[in-house]
Amino acid sequence: MAERPVLRVCALYPDLMNIYADRGNLLMLEQRCAWRGLGFELTGAGIGDAVDPDAHDLFYIGGGQDRDQILCAEDLVTHKSAALHAAAARGAAILAVCGGYQLLGRSYELADRTIPGIGLVDLETVRHDGPRLIGNVAIELELPGIDGPRVLAGFENHAGRTRLGAGEQPLGRVLRGHGNTGRSGAEGVRRGNVIGTYMHGPLLPKNAWFADWLTAAALGLETPLAPLDDAFEEAAHRSARRAAGV
Prior knowledge:
By secondary structure, this protein is of the alpha/beta class. The protein has 6 helices and 14 strands. The strands form 3 sheets. A 6-stranded mixed β-sheet has the order 2-1-3-4-14-13, sandwiched between helices. A 4-stranded mixed β-sheet has the order 6-5-7-10, with helices on one face. The protein has a 4-stranded antiparallel β-sheet with strand order 9-8-11-12, covered by helices on one side.
């Protein structure tokens, strides 16, 4: 009998980088694996912990307050940057939300200091003195293995304005909401299986199809995951889209 696949997830700073119910993303992955008979292993990595780039299929980092983000940024650069670069190079998936998304880039500039990022993708973020970008958001995107464009819906709340380097691809096109800068029409970033986004909500329970795509990408599956009865999840998705005005 073939051994069942196991999705091995490493949550970075789960106690510090977890606002707007971002932990719900991990619960969504675990439950959908259980429904399909897939294994699920969750490991937490906090301040000072080393990370094995080959021991996990998916690395996850949520959002946090600036004071917590500063603590995590220093540790991320010192103790985990090389591992995340190595993991991404071999095709592991990385999902980073809001503050975690900002730390994937080269820097996050505050009024009185600049927080270093790990430079996994080419982007820079500057904290803006103007209004925060807050509200429901919906984006249109295309992903490998998914037929046609799809819509992600969620919630954003950030003061940072994130600008992508010339060679980077946004995660999607803003349909409603603000996105990376409030003006660019772009939201998030995607380089292969490395994804950064400002979308909370939490993101995955509102977008079950995206949770499945992320799982398949992390496991390196060549065929789509078996479908589930997603009536409840699809209702949540429709509600989120209505809230965003899409």
